[in-house]
Every structure is written in structure tokens, then in C-alpha cells.
Amino acid sequence: MLLDVQNVKKVYKSRGNQTTALQSIDFGVNEGEFVAIMGESGSGKSTLLNIIATFDQPTEGSVYLNGMNTSEIKKDKIAMFRREQLGFVFQDFNVLDTFSNRDNILLPLVLSNKSVKDMDQAINQIAPMLGIEELLDKYPYEISGGQRQRVAIARAIITKPSLLLADEPTGALDSKSSEQILHILEDLNDAGNTILMVTHSTYAASFSKRVLFIKDGVVYHELYRGDESNQSFNERISQSLTLLADRGA
Ligand code: ADP
């Protein structure tokens, strides 16, 4: 198993107040999967993603990536671990306006001291997949939100990470750009990339192959897409949400 989340609990403590953001989360992701995590605002999605991303530590439980307990990685190795093992795509793109799109995408390779030849080869390989060849010498402020997200995805995958983590990747986009980004994620998954995406959108989740539903800090339901189309999976996800809400689950 590529990612193994075992019994993860997270309690935030501040000035005598305690908030249990995650009660006990258990799930695994195999290599090649595209998994969406759905839940309402406040259900613990960001907390879970931050723990998997090694930005935060669980109060109890463990996260294993490629068999490695991420809590046991030494402080001075954590940046390298993230850069080599994980790719990140955020809602608000997180691209740097003072760098060209090309330099934004190459940044992780520069930090890893790759040669110019390796960098050129890597960018030439992924730019066509994302339809951004014409944008490389422009700056992020010169392109649209959807294009910026494509640049951000290129930066996330250029190191060939084991796992691509996406936090509401279409949250700041119009419906047409959202659809393009979700098709790109679907294509990247078909090409072998493992993706874990957090979203509150049933439409976005319908592009994944498996949906985990979280509420009150536990995974309380799971759906597999099978051979279904996006549209019929989207309907099934929406029905599940309605049914589970009616049951007061
Ligand atoms: P989601 O991403 O699904 O909206 P979050 O993970 O942001 O949910 O939040 C889960 C719960 O944890 C909420 O009750 C939230 O108020 C609380 N929470 C999140 N971050 C912190 C923090 N840094 N300190 C205290 N409480 C927090």
C-alpha cells in the first residue's frame, strides 16, 4: 500500500479549549488510485491533508508513505522528503508572480540541484500533457486562473512524486476551467499518477475512482466508481450525501 493512514486522531488545544478535528481516521491508498475525500466545512479535511502532507503531526495514530512512518522523519530531512515523495496542488494556485511560469515549474528541480539538461527534458515532457507550452515564458499574472492551476500542477508533478495531494483544486475556478483541470487530473491518473484530492464538490469528486466521506472526524462511508461515467457517479455521490444526511449519519 502506498499510503496507510492508521487510527489518526487530531486534537487542537488552545488556551484551555480542545477541539477534536479528527476522531479516528483509517484508510489506505494503493499505487495508481485516484481517491477523493469529501466532507462539509469543518469536517476535518484540511487537518487530514495537512497531516498526510507532513505539515502537521497527529495527536495519535500514524501515517505511512511507502512504508515509512512520516512522524519519524528527522526535521532536517522533511523538506527533501516532501519534495521527493509528494506533489501539492492548492485551491489558490500558490504560484510566484515574480517568476516566469517556466521558473515556477522548475523550482523543485532547482532546489534538488538537477542539471539544466534534466530540467529541460522534464519540462518538455510534461508541458504538452498540460497544454501549457505557449505559456512557459509568460508570468502567472499574465494568464487565467485555470492556466495558473495547470502551471501549479506541472510544478507538482515535475519531480514525479509518489503521491499528488490536491486541496480543493477547482475551488477558485469557473465551471469551464474546473472541468479542464479535473480532466487533466483524470488523465494524469490514467498515466499512472496516484492522486488524493480533498473537495466538497460532488462534481469534482465524480472524476475520482473512489470517494471517502468524512464527518465528525471519521470516515463514515465509501463509494467506488467502477465503470460508471462521471455523470452517473456524480448522481450516486449526491444521492449518498442526501441519504446519509437524512439518516443523521
Ligand atoms: P475542513 O477542512 O473540512 O473545513 P478543518 O480540518 O479545517 O475542516 O477543521 C476541522 C475542525 O478543527 C474544525 O472544528 C476547526 O474549527 C478545527 N480547527 C482546524 N484548525 C484548527 C487550529 N489550528 N486550531 C484549532 N482548531 C482548529
What are the SSEs and their pairings?
Layout: E1 3-14, E2 17-29, E3 34-38, H1 45-52, E4 60-65, E5 68-69, H2 78-85, E6 86-89, H3 101-111, H4 116-130, H5 145-157, E7 163-167, H6 175-190, E8 195-199, H7 202-205, E9 210-215, E10 218-224, H8 230-246
Parallel strand pairs: 3-8, 3-9, 6-7, 7-8
Antiparallel strand pairs: 1-2, 1-4, 4-5, 9-10
Report on the structure:
The structure is a single chain. The protein is α/β, with parallel strands linked by helices and 249 residues long. The strands form two sheets. A six-stranded mixed β-sheet has the order 6-7-8-3-9-10. Strands 2-1-4-5 form a four-stranded antiparallel β-sheet, with helices on one face. β9 and β10 form a beta hairpin. α4 crosses α5. Bound molecules: adenosine-5'-diphosphate. Adenosine-5'-diphosphate (ADP) binds next to β1, β2 and α1.
